[in-house]
Amino acid sequence: MRQVVLGCGLLALSLAVNADSKTATIGVSATLLKACEAGSSSGGNVSFGSLDFGTVYFLTTSVSVAGQQNAGAIRVKCNNGTSYNVLLNGGQSGNTAARYLKSAAGQQVNYNLYTNSSHSIIWDNLTGVSQTANGQDSWLPVYGMIPVQSTPPIGSYTDTVQVTINW
C-alpha cells in the first residue's frame, strides 16, 4: 500500500511540473461621435415652449419679450467640443426679415426674433447662432419684438417657427 501512495504522490508531482500558462490581451475601445440633443421631448415631439408676448391692448409702443428656460429659449446639449449652429426659419411668412403673427381671420401682427436683447441682429435661417459645446445644457434666449404698427382687430395671433440645429 505504501508503493501505491508513493506512486500517486509522484504522479501528482509530475502533473505540477508539466503545468504551463499562457497570457494574451483583449483590445477594448469606444468611439464617441459628435452628438447633440435639444429642447424637451414629450410623446416623441421636441419642444422649446412658447415665446409669449402676453396680452396687448394697443401697438402704439413696441412690445418685447425674452425667452427663458422652457418658455421660448432654445436648450442645446452637445458633447464637449462639438460646434453647433442654431437657425430659425421665417414661420408662416417664410421670410426671416418680416415675420408675422396671424389670427384665425387672417389679420396679421408684424414681429421679429433676435439673437440679442438690443434687437439689432435678426435670428435667421442662414447665419443663426453658433457655439462650441462644453457638454452641459446651454440655453439660448430668443428675443422677440412687435414693432409699433396699426392695432389690428382683437383676437389671438400666433406663428410657428421651425428651429434647426446643425452640428
From TrEMBL:
Domain Spore coat protein U/FanG as annotated: residue spans: 23-164
Pfam families this protein is in?
A: SCPU
Q: Which InterPro entries match?
A: Spore_coat_component, Spore_coat_U/FanG
Signal peptide span = 1-19
Q: Does the keyword Signal apply?
A: yes
- Answer yes or no on keyword Signal: yes
Per UniProt, the keywords (alphabetical) are: Capsid protein, Signal, Virion
Q: What is this protein called?
A: Spore coat protein U
Q: Which organism is it from?
A: Serratia proteamaculans
The uppermost taxa in this organism's lineage are:
Bacteria, Pseudomonadati, Pseudomonadota, Gammaproteobacteria, Enterobacterales
